[in-house]
Amino acid sequence: MKKKQPKYLVIYEDVKEKILSGHYPINSRIADGNTLVQEYDASLMTVKKALDILVSEGFLIRRRGYGTIVKDWTKGKKAHLYAVEGSSKRHSGQLESEVLTFEVEHPNADIAHKLSIDVEDFIYRIERVRYVKKVPTIIEYTYMPISIIPQLKYSHLTGSIYKYILEELGLVIQSSFLNVKGVRPNALEKQTMHLTDTDFLMQVEQVANLDDGRIFEYSIARHLPDSFNFETVIFNN
Fold first, then answer.
1. Rounded-to-integer distance, Cα 24 and Cα 18, Å
2. Whether residue 214 sits in one domain with residue 99
3. Is there a domain that residue 36 lies in?
4. Are 50 and 141 contained in the same domain?
5. Tens digit of each residue's pLDDT (9 = 90 or more) over 183-205
6. Domain check: are 100 and 182 in the same one?
7. Same domain, 116 and 217
8. Strand ranges inside the chain, DSSP E
9. Same domain? 102 vs 215
10. Spatial distance between the Cα atoms of 237 and 61, rounded to a whole number of angstroms
């Protein structure tokens, strides 16, 4: 039986269609949160999640004290984070992967929330060490819903998961929400990357979306600081 589409995606798709069709003209204010809650029979958190995707895609902008406004999306200028392309492209020809964990399991409540799925759903839990020029440089903890990324194999993990997603599944990656900070290594990282308690790593926490708004990945990647390079390109709308 086909699984029912999450409510936030229903709201996202409907509001986006209203923007593209001109029901919500450029520079107009869309209905407020309480009105949308009643219209879609959803919680305020669910409505906010749907609108957050449209904000990230460059269709909406929030203005304090005024509401949520339709941006001039026809210019096609959206913020884009190139980190979404994955480690393989950034370290082309230099990267090797060691798979530590590849399991199919139910997510805990926190991971389920990050992926916008239920705890009864199945996910891939992947742990990999990424070697750059034979040096253990990155350790990745990745969670992906099986319903969105089906038939993932061990061979994909030793190469590029994103290549499988883009080229074999034919999916389109739209955006990525990133949080970057410095952290101390845990026991696994100290052992695998030959670190001590006084060392630190640069952590990139990522939630990545497809072009239809679905979240296909939640991941934490921890990098050696001397090889960490984070770039963004931001266009002014």
1. 6
2. yes
3. yes
4. no
5. 999 999 999 999 999 999 999 99
6. yes
7. yes
8. 60-63, 67-70, 95-105, 123-132, 135-145, 173-183, 201-210, 215-223
9. yes
10. 10
Answer yes or no: do 102 and 211 share one domain.
yes
Find out whether 207 and 177 touch, Cβ atoms under 8 Å: yes
Q: pLDDT class for 90, splitting at 50, 70, 90? A: low
Give a yes or no: residue 235 inside a domain.
no
pLDDT digits (tens, 9 = 90+) for 149-175: 998 888 899 888 988 999 999 998 887
Structural tokens at position 209: 């979306």
Nearest Cα to Cα of residue 130 among 96, 162, 164: 96
Determine how many CB atoms are found less than 10 A away from the CB of residue 112: 19
CA dihedral 154, 158, 159, 165 (to 10 degrees): 30
Out of 70, 85, 119, a domain closes at 70
Range of the domain at 157: 95-227
Tally the C-alpha atoms within 13 A of residue 175's C-alpha that lie toward its C-beta: 16
Maximum distance among all Cα pairs of the chain, rounded to whole angstroms: 58
How many structural domains are present in the chain?
2
* Count of Cβ atoms closer than 10 Å to residue 25 Cβ: 8
Q: How far apart are CA 219 and CA 144, in angstroms?
A: 9
C-beta separation of 211 from 172 below 8 A: yes
Q: Residues 66, 99: one domain?
A: no
Closest listed residue to residue 200, CA positions, set 177, 220, 226, 176: 226
Residue 60, classed as helix, strand or coil, is strand
Contact in structure between 9 and 213 (CB atoms under 8 Å): yes
Q: Is 214 helix (H, G, I), strand (E, B) or coil?
A: coil
DSSP state of 5: P
CATH label of the domain that carries residue 108: 3.40.1410.10
